[in-house]
Write a structure and sequence with these properties.
The protein is 46% helix and 14% strand. It is built from 14 helices and nine strands. The chain has helices at residues 4-7, 22-43, 98-109, 120-125, 142-148, 175-187, 189-199, 223-234, 242-248, 253-264, 268-286, 291-297, 303-314, 318-325; strands spanning 8-16, 50-59, 64-70, 81-84, 113-117, 134-135, 153-154, 160-162, 166-169. It has a seven-stranded mixed β-sheet with strand order 3-2-1-4-5-9-8. The chain starts with a helix and ends with a helix.
């Protein structure tokens, strides 16, 4: 008999925590419903294979999570996946998520796969279940996640990290990547691709380095290092030696290196590379100048070396980057 219970092949629980992004919650809800419709078209079966979706929220009168919405309300819950969606506020303003984290830990012990998107990784990290494991979050939140949960191996270059029992996704809109990843696992590759085409979104992306931006830290309080940073930004195309920079900071080379890395999180050579590639990205986006010319302008005399470094930091070649983001 083709009953609703027989149709359900998985149940995905979406955690609604304080300041969570409801656009992601409802977007995933719609995506899984659309996928079920396409699963029928792809398979040609009469039986509709459905992904049940339930929304779970902290009961303010008790330390418990309650189901506040359910696509199949007449069936007993059999959660297979739980997702912590992105947050509308930056991690510094996120309140502790003890109740959702404890609830997720209990579900994990029952065999449920745990997932997070963007800052939802901070909720997942409170469970302790991603200690000593690779996990991703939004590239702008990676350092904060590392500092708050130092046992987590943060890999911000990845858009999706799938460990089977735990799946993390990076950017704010990476809920589409996570959703399509789960659809492929549950309903198959054909249904995932059909859902992707219908929604006009790309299949799951694996890297977010192409979208990340270099955000230098100027708020560290180390004035000599700040002078060196300003010099590097003003003269990014020039050659810089540690001796010259250390004189500018009035430090010995060894002391300068230690202070610079502590203040910026990068070695001077890596910092200069980030600044140069940042300038190169702007030129690729906003001009029609050749890649070789841009390489020279930002300080690389060897265009092949520029292309190699550019791909290392962005995940794509300069030409691919211009094709994707160029406005000219």
């Amino acid at each position: 008999m083709n009953t609703p219970e027989n149709n359900v092949v998985a149940e995905v629980g979406l955690v609604i925590y304080p300041d969570s992004q409801l656009a992601a919650v409802y977007g995933l809800t719609d995506m899984f419903r659309i996928a079920a419709d396409w699963a029928v078209n792809i398979s040609g079966e009469d039986r509709k294979r459905a992904i049940r979706v339930s929304h779970w929220q902290n009961d303010t009168t008790a330390s418990n999570m309650l189901c506040v919405w359910d696509s199949h309300p007449d069936l007993p819950h059999r959660l297979s996946h739980v997702i912590a969606p992105p947050s509308l506020v930056v991690p510094e303003k996120m309140v502790p998520m003890k109740v959702p984290a404890n609830w997720m830990s209990e579900r994990y012990n029952e065999g449920v796969t745990l997932c997070s998107v963007c800052a939802g990784a901070f909720v997942l990290a409170e469970t302790g279940l991603i200690d000593h494991r690779r996990a991703t979050t939004h590239w702008a939140f990676a350092q904060t996640l590392s500092e708050r949960f130092p046992a987590v191996d943060v890999a911000a270059e990845n858009m999706v990290i799938d460990d089977g029992d735990i799946i993390t996704a990076g950017g704010i809109l990476a809920w589409t990547d996570l959703g399509l990843t789960l659809i492929e696992k549950i309903l198959g590759t054909g249904t995932m691709l059909a859902t992707s085409r219908f929604l006009l979104v790309d299949p799951p992306r694996r890297e977010q380095s192409t979208y990340s931006a270099f955000i230098p830290n100027f708020d560290h309080g180390d004035s000599p290092i700040l002078r060196a940073q300003h010099h590097l930004h003003a003269h990014f195309a020039d050659q810089h030696s540690i001796d010259t920079l250390s004189v500018l900071a009035n430090m010995t080379p060894r002391t300068f290196l230690r202070h610079f890395q502590k203040a910026t999180g990068l070695r001077p050579t890596d910092y200069v590379q980030q600044v140069r590639i940042m300038k190169a990205r702007d030129a690729l986006e906003l001009s029609n100048r050749s890649v070789d010319q841009i390489a020279w302008e930002v300080g690389y005399t060897d265009p092949s070396a520029f292309r190699k470094i550019f791909r290392k930091l962005t995940g794509v070649t300069p030409g691919q980057y211009r094709q994707r983001f160029g406005t000219q």
